[in-house]
């Protein structure tokens, strides 16, 4: 747990230092933009012991605020903050047993704090990358289960089902998010398409030596679109 917190702290410090250095030497900008975003998540969970899964699809959407502070040579530098509703979770699937299944959907309020680095024309098409820490708070969860799991596990002792009746123990989630995309900046607003990956550093089940799982963390691939309009230029 201390190592995870250390990685997060180092990543936050690196982002802050990058923005600070650019702010001292770049051409100043004061572009603040606000808008909305929406998309889909492809979710899985890193379990130890392993739980066999397929990707679970969920939705994500919310508000986005971005501040561009400067242009440093050909790089446009800024920061982005989002407040999103986002669905995570996992879906268990066994190819040899298609009649059984288990899906857990977990709803979060998420807040990514992202460094924004873009390349291209200030009016026109840009390529950008995002990276930074993300936190989340669990709002609630639900599950669906089908099939005769009792018969399945009695004949297959290597199948893990401890998670089926287990309540979420840690509602606070944190990790690192990063992605890339393209943005079209027009007089009518800024239109953005982005792919992003979130790697959780926290576990939603207890992970001490006495607990069953030593790892239970989200991994999320997100495809999203965003519309921003400039408040200040």
Instruction: Please write the string of helix (H) and strand (E) elements.
Output: HEEEEEEHEEE
Fraction in beta strands: over 45%
Shape descriptor reads: elongated
DSSP summary, beta strand count: 9
Q: Quick one: biggest sheet?
A: 8 strands, antiparallel, barrel
Cα distance, first to last residue?
42 Å
Q: Which spans have pLDDT < 50 for at least 5 consecutive residues?
A: 20-24
Overall average residue pLDDT: 89
Figure out the total of helices. Answer: 2
Strand order of the biggest β-sheet: 1-3-4-5-6-7-8-9
User: C-alpha Rg, in Å?
Assistant: 20 Å
> What structural class is derived from the secondary structure elements?
mainly beta
**CATH topology value:** Porin
Please write the CATH class name.
Answer: Mainly Beta
Q: How many domains in all?
A: 1
Topology:
Elements (H helix, E strand, L loop, with lengths): L1 H24 L1 E22 L4 E2 L1 E17 L2 E18 L8 E20 L4 E22 L2 H7 L16 E15 L2 E12 L14 E18 L1
Antiparallel strand pairs: 1-3, 1-9, 2-4, 3-4, 4-5, 5-6, 6-7, 7-8, 8-9
Structure description:
The structure is a single chain. The chain is about 15% helix and about 65% strand. It has a single domain (about 1-230), classed as Beta Barrel (Porin), CATH 2.40.160. The protein has about 230 residues and is mainly beta. The protein has helices spanning about 1-25, 150-155, and strands at about 25-50, 55, 55-70, 75-90, 100-120, 125-145, 170-185, 190-200, 215-230. It is built from 2 helices and 9 strands. The longest helix is centred in the first third of the chain and has 24 residues, at about 1-25. The protein has an 8-stranded antiparallel β-barrel.
